Amino acid sequence: MVPPMVDLGQLANDVAANVAFLLLPTGLWLFLYLWIWERPQEAAAAGFDRRTFWLLVAGGIAGTLADIPILWWTGDVLAVNIGGGLLPIAISLWLIYRSLPGPGLATLQRFLLLFGATTAALFAVVVLAPAAWLPWLVTGGAALVAAAAFVSVDSTSPWRGVALLTGLSLLGLDLAFLTSVTVPSAGIESMFPLYLIAPLLLGAIPAVVAPRYLGTARIVSVPIAFASMTFGVLTGADVLHQPPLYGKGAGILAIGGAGVQDLVYLSGLFAVVVAWTATWAIERRQRGTADPVPSKPALSGEPIALAVRHVQEGRTELAIAASQAAVRSAVEEARRLRALPVSGAGEDPWSGLPVPGWARTDAANLEAFGRVPPRSSRDGIRALLTARELVTVARQVTQPVFATVRARTTAFLLDLAIVTAPALAVFAIIVWTATGGPLVLLNNIPLVTATLAYPALAYLYFALFETFTGTTPGKRILGLVVVDRALQRPGPSTALVRNTPLILPLAAIALVLADLLLFVRFHTTSAPGDLSVVNVGLSNALLAGSIICALTGAATLLALAITGGRGRVGDVWAGTRVLRRSWIIPAGGSPAPRPARAQSATSGS
């Protein structure tokens, strides 16, 4: 009998692996979107608000094109990818700080110290010990530290969260190490379905253990699952499996280098899905209801949008209430932007604002209109139309506070010049000092590293300046400042979200710069083949850069048109505004820092 030519089992596994590879990111993004937009209160309680969504999705996609070099090692470059590594790590740190019980900063510091020291010790074991012993040594070392962490705390210790997170992260480290392999020609790989084991366990275990062990709401298991899985894969797969690649000509060894297809990125999100599903199932069983999540309040979200929805659904009373809320919100925002005190009860909220008299009259009529029962569905429409006019008036009186498009563009070009000038010098040094033709230089590790590092470092330039000073050098020269909706300096996550759309055009600029310098050096070469390579490379770079910049510019113009010139795409995502410093900040001052983290005995948030 002739044996079968096709292994059906292997074929089925390969098909499933390819389907998972293609659909897993999209499926996880869809879950995040539905969860965050349909259950905003529950998602926010877990630390996953809309800013987190944009960081993980938009930031993950764009950040795949950017790497931050860390150090050189025997000819190779160790780096971290923005989308597949830095952003999941940053979000994990924020979730630990926000969600675990106890003092947030101290909790984060203790976890990093304990987990970091353990990882460093295991890294030394991987480098020094025989390969045959590594599975046993890594497993034993991780288990020993996890057990010691649990034993060292009692039922009243404020560091029980650190012990739980450390134990789960070390479990993730061990599973990621055991299910991953080092392939010298390809990097670090994990086979399907083995890479699903760790997120399944680290998603389910916190949902069962966390409420009883920590005394918190069960939803806290979601951020614990994400953080522990991210750190587990980061160390167990990337860090501990990298040493065999050192010195082998691998080029750039980037943590999370596969971007949104990397396990550092995907495993945490998959653990979130498992943790939420387990939480939902457990609470459904305990409560005996199909949906343990309370319904959204009637007035959540943007009031005008809610008013429109209520009018369409025939809910006249809710439409009137939403219209009133929209006007109150717009007026109070106008008062804050124009540095006026918040109006008290019984006071005219429009006092001090340069508005026509009919606006005050219509506002008073709208408030009075809501105190009597509506007579027909037309009342809801009338309230909505009145609210739209009043909101427009309130927005118009604050227009002088906002930076103009010209000022913002000039400030951006100044900042772009500041970050591009040193990058151009580095590119030029690499191109003119490297040996070989253009084909060799296109694969030159320093040049490739510089091309990937430029968008990453420029992105951090904008984000870090706005986080710590509320502005950038270019904006400071133009007298501009970035604030959130409360007129405070944007926090780290807000600044990262705001500048995420810049990564794509920055990557395009890096590509054009590198190819342009190659063209300048080799355009006079006598070798037709070299000239052809240079011309084709520059043409492709210019075409790709033009398309990316055109799409980015179109999205910016669309956002400015929608917001009345108040914000580009990043501002819409992050809820930030760019204002004239002289309107809201005393001379020489800075935007108000964000308030300190409030402590909670149960959730730590």
Record field, number of beta strands: 7
Q: Which band does the percent of strand residues land in?
A: 5-15%
Structure annotation, total helices: 24
Determine the N-to-C terminus distance. 68 Å
CA gyration radius, whole angstroms: 28 Å
Arithmetic mean pLDDT: 84
Helix-strand category: mainly alpha
The percent of residues in helical segments reads 55-70%
- Side by side, the strands of the main sheet go 1-2-5
Can you summarize the main beta sheet?
3 strands, mixed
Could you say which overall geometry the principal axes of the C-alpha atoms support?
globular
Low-confidence stretches: 289-301, 598-605
Q: How would you describe this protein?
A:
The model is unreliable at 289-301 and 598-605 (pLDDT under 50). 65% of the residues lie in helices and 6% in strands. It has 605 residues and is mainly alpha-helical. It contains 24 helices and seven strands. The relative contact order is 0.10. The protein has a three-stranded mixed β-sheet. The chain has a two-stranded antiparallel sheet with strand order 3-4. A two-stranded antiparallel sheet has the order 6-7. The protein has helices at 8-38, 40-45, 50-56, 58-63, 82-99, 104-128, 134-151, 160-178, 197-214, 221-239, 263-287, 303-312, 316-337, 357-369, 377-397, 405-433, 438-442, 445-469, 473-477, 492-499, 503-522, 528-562, 569-574, 581-584, and strands spanning 67-73, 76-81, 180-183, 187-190, 252-255, 480-484, 576-580.
